[in-house]
TrEMBL record:
Belongs to the class-I pyridoxal-phosphate-dependent aminotransferase family. This is Aminotransferase. GO terms for biological process: amino acid metabolic process. It comes from Dyella marensis. Its EC number is 2.6.1.-. Keywords: Aminotransferase, Pyridoxal phosphate, Transferase. Residues 32-391 form the Aminotransferase class I/classII large domain. Its cofactor is pyridoxal 5'-phosphate. Coiled coil: none annotated.
Length: 399
């Protein structure tokens, strides 16, 4: 019998979706489930986005679109990134994908040969390591624990870059921690990056509009403009605009990278459909009241989550300042039992929590930090406090 390609054996199902599926099954069986598992914003875009999609349907050509992206979408994205602080980019610096995940995969194919090294900080989004494994790259994971607020520091980055990795992948604001790098922290890391010109820099910053406490969004290229020649900025409509299912991701970077991604698109996806393109244009260029209101709402939910978690004896949770995640260190529970169920690690903790209380969280080991678990607090507001109270009660019952 013919065999599958070896790369398929390196591909793993999403740990996040495994937990989500288990929660779904329990809910279907009649259990009262509160899910803190999936990282979806759980709100819908403004009416103008749907109106643009409906109007596009009336005039749909039914034809293939541009491999790079339709010009109205590229222009809308240019205006979007200019507002963030990126200047001097044109259409030839851009390309699209079916969501940021597919864009990141295309970038890996474009930048990494078999055996090349890619480095990124842990905790990391699960897909980073998965993509590296599939394309046969070597992942150098830079561990950043709660004792350093889950943030990469210049000395760690310097040590990693001395190994001459092909790619440095960076995420700000962070999934899974919700941490945000300040202007000063970004500048300090950028000072290191300029010394290593042979490494590509990819900034996966799809939560750039979800930043709290007045910190603002900052990028290495703002601090060191010369990095623009090898830095790729990744964004999407998924989180900011409540459109994860619409699947539109984009990059801004050197023309050579944008051309490579566009060429891969011609072989992979061809184009983003017209209707979805129109919706994305409306999202970027239309009223921003929904994203602003949701950012304020998430900041308020963050306060509730942070207060509840830090009230649990022994739990350590650096204060999130963006996205919609908290990432508490729950290792105080390891070695204890809950109603006869022994808990030795994060996976057993989350399994016991779900079974006993109906609260679904994702084990931190999925993100490279087995002392923690991820809480996504985009659930309906009415479920937030009850879910947190169940977590508090679960800890109180450990023995």
């Amino acid at each position: 019998m013919p065999q599958l390609a070896q790369r398929v054996g390196r591909a793993k199902p999403s740990a996040i979706m495994v937990i989500a599926e288990k929660a779904r099954q329990l809910k279907a069986a009649g259990r009262d489930i509160i899910s803190f598992s999936i990282g979806v914003p759980n709100f819908l875009p403004g009416d103008h986005v749907y109106e643009a999609a409906r109007e596009a349907l009336k005039h749909d050509s039914g034809q293939y679109g541009s491999n790079r992206g339709a010009e109205p979408l590229l222009d809308a994205f240019l205006r979007h990134i200019e507002a963030l602080g990126f200047s001097g980019y044109g259409r030839m610096n851009l390309s699209i994908g079916i969501g940021a995940k597919q864009v990141l995969y295309n970038l890996a194919e474009a930048m990494l040969d078999e055996g090349d090294e890619i480095c990124f900080a842990a905790p990391y989004w699960t897909t980073y390591h998965d993509i590296a494994d599939i394309v046969g790259a070597k992942a150098n994971v830079l561990h950043c624990g709660p004792e350093q607020n889950y943030k990469l520091v210049p000395a760690q980055l310097e040590a990693a870059l001395q190994r001459k990795p092909k790619v440095f992948l960076f995420n700000n604001p962070s999934n899974p921690t919700g941490m945000v790098y300040t202007r000063e922290e970004i500048a300090a890391l950028a000072d290191v990056l300029v010394k290593y010109p042979d490494t590509w820099i990819v900034t996966d910053d799809i939560y750039n509009s979800m930043v709290f406490d007045g910190i603002g969004y900052h990028n290495f290229v703002f601090a060191q403009p010369e990095l623009r020649e090898r830095l790729v900025f990744v964004d999407s409509v998924s989180k900011t605009y409540g459109m994860p299912g619409w699947r539109v991701g984009l990059i801004a970077g050197p023309e050579s990278v944008a051309k490579a991604v566009t060429t891969l698109n011609s072989n992979h996806i061809t184009s983003v459909p017209e209707v979805i393109t129109a919706a994305a244009v409306a999202a970027f260029g239309g009223p921003q009241d929904v994203p602003r209101a949701k950012c304020e709402e998430f900041a308020g939910k963050r306060d509730v989550v942070f207060e509840a978690l830090t009230a649990i004896p022994g739990v350590v949770c650096p204060r999130p300042q963006g996205a919609f995640y908290a990432f508490p260190d729950i290792s105080v529970a390891f070695g204890k039992s809950h109603q006869g169920t022994k808990i030795s690690n994060d996976v057993e903790f989350c399994a016991a929590l779900l079974e006993a209380t109906g609260v679904a969280c994702v084990p931190g080991s999925a993100f490279g930090e087995p002392r923690a678990m991820r809480i996504s607090y985009t659930c309906p507001t009415a479920q937030l406090k009850p879910g947190l109270e169940r977590i508090q009660a679960f800890f109180a019952q450990l023995s």
